[in-house]
Design brief:
- This protein is of the alpha/beta class and 328 residues long.
- It is built from eleven helices and ten strands.
- The strands form two sheets. It has an eight-stranded parallel beta sheet with strand order 3-4-5-6-7-8-9-10, with helices on one face.
- Strand 6, helix 4 and strand 7 form a beta-alpha-beta unit.
- Helix 1 packs parallel to helix 10 and helix 8 packs antiparallel against helix 11.
- The mean pLDDT is 96.
Amino acid sequence: MKHHAFGRMPFTVTNVGFGAWQIGGSWGDISEADGRAALNAALDAGMTFIDTADVYGDGRSEKIIADVLKTRGAKRPMVATKAGRRLNPHVAEGYTKANLEGFIDRSLTNLAVDSLDLVQLHCPPRDVLYQPQVFEGLNALQKAGKIKGYGVSVEKVEDGLKAIEYPGVVSIQIIYNIFRQRPDHLFFQEARRRNVAIIVRVPLASGLLSGKITRDTHFASDDHRNFNRNGEAFDVGETFAGVPFEVGLQAVEEVRKLVPEGATMAAFALRWILMSDAVTVVIPGARNAEQAKANAAAADLAPLSADVMAATREIYERLIAPHVHQRW
């Protein structure tokens, strides 16, 4: 894995990090023991970036991270969390300084720290991005020492472009993968120009790009790939990257032909993301230690050729783009 400066912040992170949504919940039955093993394996492999959120398992993910890091006692990785999704209803009016401070205080307790390395607004309603007072509140919380920096996790490219207009925004988290290529058209250029860190989530399109999912794959009732197929619980773009399931399976079979001998499709998909110089860190999740180790090893694959990159673009434009390109 390569190491990058995290935008304008005084952190250096590996280009592959650990996405901690799975160890929190909404991915079927993942035991706490498996979650701990996955995180320990990621850290053993050298990862220095962890991404979580206060709503992942209602704090379960944050608490597991705190306990594992306390037990290890080594140099701490950078830990990013998110805030805002605890609002009910999740509306722009709820993004007050008082509410955000309450969420941040809860995360400080869950993560057992005095200051959060990074707090990200958790896919806020678009109107939040047009309310300077929200970001003024975050500036005040940063000056108070409760957070070291703040960013925004976004659903749409347009939201990312708007968010980085605020000078205090140091990072954007966005979906980018073989099935969601639009961020590389304009957004990455603007983020690079402003030295904004890019955190890439949903790198495997909720497992589609692992190549292991078939039409007969069963998803548990508490797995978002079951209950959010049509966006019933949150933005449908978070599930299979918004690609209709059957279309995704068809595209996967074409991508499979491009995977080099000896590599897994998952590793290939992660290496594809790392071909972009704009990407600071990609955060695949892991259900167990083996998956965490495999994610770290993906960075060691040889760079993909121009022909292979062109072939993935052709598959995207022909099969996937009509469903997702202008939507996100």
